[in-house]
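Why should sequence recovery work at all? Because a backbone constrains its sequence more than one might expect. Tight turns favour small or flexible residues, buried strands favour hydrophobic ones, and helices have their own preferences. The token representation captures these environments compactly. In the example below, the structure is given first.
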């Protein structure tokens, strides 16, 4: 463990960590706000286009896909969407820096033998976060979106997807998937310091299934069984992976 720090020293270090994060976040926010109009159609609205790569790969399921029109019904929605998406993109950009600042803050409280393990967990956590966001954007959200927009309870009912509904569903799924992908890294760290063991996770598997189903139900904004299953399967896969990485 490093040299002893007083409460005020810790508070001052925390203040500077937060200040650096805020400064970097604001810079990233300005950059994302400027760049967003150039990538909104191709990236943000990508899953609404018929030529999205996943739909081409799964053409035998979807058949001849069609573009899904996104409509706006509120006066300020497009401007607020610009700001909200810019903030989420900025958070995505600064996430590694945020993890680094957390690492700087907690490092003085660790023993030398703990530093290597916690540092690896922070590095692995950043990579898993981006992997989870990628899974959410490229796989989970497009599958859910295509299924729900293509489902018809009656041929006389036309689906018109609002901008707010589209953005809320996509952002919630993408970023929540990024967070839940941190599970193996957290499990590895807890196993490293002796809080949990592999046998413990194996014995808890049946209870974990129930907890993950509840978590998937909380994550899914629509609440339908198909969406629940699409979200639950990656979560359960992460739990099994956590069993493998814990010693």
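From this structural description, the recovered sequence reads:
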């Amino acid at each position: 463990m490093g040299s002893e720090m007083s409460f005020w020293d810790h508070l001052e270090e925390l203040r500077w960590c937060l200040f650096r994060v805020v400064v970097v976040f604001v810079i990233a926010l300005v950059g994302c706000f400027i760049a967003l109009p150039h990538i909104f159609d191709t990236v943000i609205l990508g899953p609404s286009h018929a030529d999205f790569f996943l739909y081409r790969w799964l053409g035998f399921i979807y058949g001849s896909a069609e573009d899904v029109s996104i409509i706006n019904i509120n006066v300020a929605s497009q401007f607020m969407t610009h700001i909200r998406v810019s903030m989420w993109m900025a958070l995505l950009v600064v996430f590694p820096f945020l993890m680094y600042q957390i690492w700087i803050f907690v490092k003085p409280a660790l023993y030398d033998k703990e530093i290597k393990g916690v540092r690896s967990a922070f590095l692995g956590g950043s990579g898993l976060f981006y992997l989870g966001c990628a899974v959410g954007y490229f796989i989970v959200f497009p599958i859910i979106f295509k299924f729900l927009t293509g489902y018809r309870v009656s041929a006389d009912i036309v689906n018109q997807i609002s901008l707010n509904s589209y953005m809320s569903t996509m952002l919630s799924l993408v970023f929540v998937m990024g967070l839940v992908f941190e599970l193996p890294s957290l499990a590895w760290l807890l196993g490293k310091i002796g809080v949990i063991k592999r046998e413990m996770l194996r014995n808890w598997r049946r209870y974990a299934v129930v907890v993950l189903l509840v978590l998937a139900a909380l994550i899914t904004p629509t609440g339908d069984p198909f969406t629940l299953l699409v979200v639950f399967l990656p979560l359960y896969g992460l739990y099994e992976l956590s069993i493998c990485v814990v010693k």
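A few observations help interpret the result. DSSP finds ten helices and two strands in the chain.
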